[in-house]
Amino acid sequence: MSDMPTLDDAADAQLVAAHLAGDGRALGAIYDRSGDALYDTAAAMMRYRDDAADVMQDVFVTASGHMGELRDPDRLRAWLFAILRNEVYRRPGNSRRQVAIDVARHRGETTLAPTLTGDPSTVEFQQLARRVRGAGAGLTERDQLVAEFSLRRGLTGNDLADALGVMPQQCYGLVHRMRQHTQRSLSAYCVARTGRDACPELNELLLGWNEELSTLVSKRVARHIDDCEVCRSTRSTSAPFALFGAAPVLTAPPGVRERVLGAAHHELDTTPYGFDPTNGFPDVIRYARRTKIWVVLTAIALLVSIGTTIYVLAADDQDTPSPPAGSATPSSGETQTIGSDADRRSVSALGVDPDHPRTVVTQR
Ligand SMILES: [Zn+2]
Question: Hey, how many other C-beta atoms are within 10 angstroms of the C-beta on 354?
């Protein structure tokens, strides 16, 4: 057991050492330090909010079993977020989320005060910040994760790269792309929410608006802003990324801490992904899943192709003999059709088109 009288002030590396030495309090101290931030990210990323607690449990079960592999224990926080990333990615169906989630409080959750200076204590500010963050659910899963990790968690450099599971030199591009994808629609939303008094034309444009940021409203308002000096001025004072980062932190419902730590101390670790031996960070499972889908689709296309060939050959045997080229042509034609259909299905299933991120950004 550790000799430390308390773990509250211990550095992350000390907590890691204490856990590896068998100090049963260490994991609890790690949870108390990082649990709110991890839960807040999980709650925003999961399509079903109840899954956020399950994600937390799997993060801590995995962390408990693999902490000894983390080469630099001072990087514990980034490492936990890297595990969280994998736990989000491996939830079936989560990557195809089409509807925005409500980042308002859910059953039993509480919120911490926002951290942005200005007027963050006002209801209006918190509502706007919450809705701007909720609009993140309309982004691609990766853009949303980049926004969560960089804007809300403040991860940078190697920590951001390893938490996202990319090379450090890719990070700048990912953050830049996320900002490009989000700035126009989130700015439009901010202007729509705050600029109606200043611009009668905008007010008229938004008559009957239910305050949800649909793609249509976003485009209309953005176009109006381009042509309106008043609204351009309003836009220049809006800070959508700061609002995204300052939205109230969601904390887990009561009982989640006990459940998570109980599981982490007693459940067997069955983590389905490996850890990089050079730094101990988890391997990215997103690509493994994509590969699996490709393998399955290719196998299906191949089986159908073989079946078609056998059918055509059998038909040729029974019917009047036809030239060999006649049997080969429909067979290869069928294969191409199925292949391209499979391509479309897989591309659609993966949502990999970087030019068309999800743009449904409504929020209840
Ligand atoms: Zn205007």
Answer: 11
Closest CA to 40 of 252, 250, 350, 341: 250
Domain boundaries, the chain: 1-108+253-283, 114-247, 287-350
Cα of 241 from ligand 1 centre, angstroms: 22
Cα separation, 138 vs 120, whole angstroms: 24
Looking only at the bridges linking them, the beta strands covering 110-112 and 249-251 are antiparallel
**Ligand 1 centroid distance, CA of 69 (Å):** 56
Q: How far is the CA of 196 from the centre of ligand 1 (A)?
A: 8
Find all residues with CB under 8 Å of 207, minimum gap 6, and list them: none
Is residue 44 within 8 A of residue 135, CB to CB? The reply is: no
Calculate how far, in angstroms, residue 235's C-alpha sits from the geometric centre of ligand 1: 10
CA of 179 to the centre of ligand 1 (A): 23
Amino acid in the structure at residue 10: A
Closest to 303 measured CA to CA, from 352, 338, 263, 344: 338
Mean residue pLDDT of the chain comes to: 78
Residues 246-293 have pLDDT tens digits of: 899 999 999 999 999 999 999 888 889 999 999 999 999 864 444 455
Q: What is the DSSP string of 37-94?
A: HHHHHHHHH-SSTTHHHHHHHHHHHHHHHHGGG-S-GGGHHHHHHHHHHHHHHTSTTG
Dist. CA 187 → ligand 1 center (Å):
13
Report how far residue 206's alpha carbon sits from residue 222's, in angstroms, rounded to the nearest whole number.
12
Q: Check if the beta carbon of residue 57 is closer than 8 Å to that of residue 266.
A: no
